[in-house]
Design goal:
Length: about 190
């Protein structure tokens, strides 16, 4: 007959049961290269956007867009900003994360280039309307990548904070671009 096996030793009761205090979760380290990459991405992304907003009226005036038309365009941009994340969600379910992120970044680059190259008020205003949707579309997936790199959400939270920091520095960058205007201004906006 087989020898009887010893019963497993009882495990110690969790600390929470003994002391009433929950144990601290293990510290999860963030990959520094991922953190730096996402921080640079967030700063560049929003520095470009906020510098562009700063230059919107000046460039529009140069193309013959009235202040009232530009105000209505910017209002439309705000409303179309909701379309970006909705489209990202729809496309992400069908195309997957990588292709959807690449689509968003390419679309945003093309829209920014179109704004920079616009020579008529209509094309300039249309570019701005598409820009907001493309920008919020791409930013949705940038944040998703940040969340995947750090499941606890620290990188995504830092990216959100850097968004505001870059937004504060954008008018300075836009002003410096405006001070050195000329043929380089449309190219700088697209970059």
């Amino acid at each position: 007959a087989p020898a009887p096996q010893a019963a497993p030793a009882p495990q110690a009761a969790p600390q929470a049961a003994a002391t009433g205090v929950a144990e601290k979760p293990a510290t999860v380290r963030i990959d520094r290269s991922a953190f730096v990459m996402m921080a640079v991405c967030a700063i560049c992304f929003w520095l470009r956007d906020s510098a562009t907003w700063t230059l919107a009226a000046q460039r529009g005036s140069a193309l013959g867009v009235s202040d009232q038309q530009m105000s209505m365009t910017l209002l439309g941009c705000t409303l179309l900003g909701f379309a970006g994340p909705a489209a990202a969600s729809f496309m992400g379910d069908r195309l997957g994360r990588t292709r959807t992120l690449l689509f968003g970044l390419v679309a945003l680059t093309l829209v920014m280039a179109a704004i920079a190259a616009a020579r008529t008020p209509l094309l300039y205003r249309l570019g701005f309307l598409l820009w907001t949707a493309a920008s919020t579309f791409a930013w949705t997936y940038v944040l998703e990548v940040a969340a995947l790199l750090d499941r606890r959400g620290r990188i995504a939270a830092i990216c959100g904070g850097l968004m505001f920091a870059a937004g504060a520095l954008g008018p300075l960058a836009g002003g410096l671009l405006d001070a050195g205007r000329g043929a380089r201004l449309p190219l700088a906006i697209a970059a």
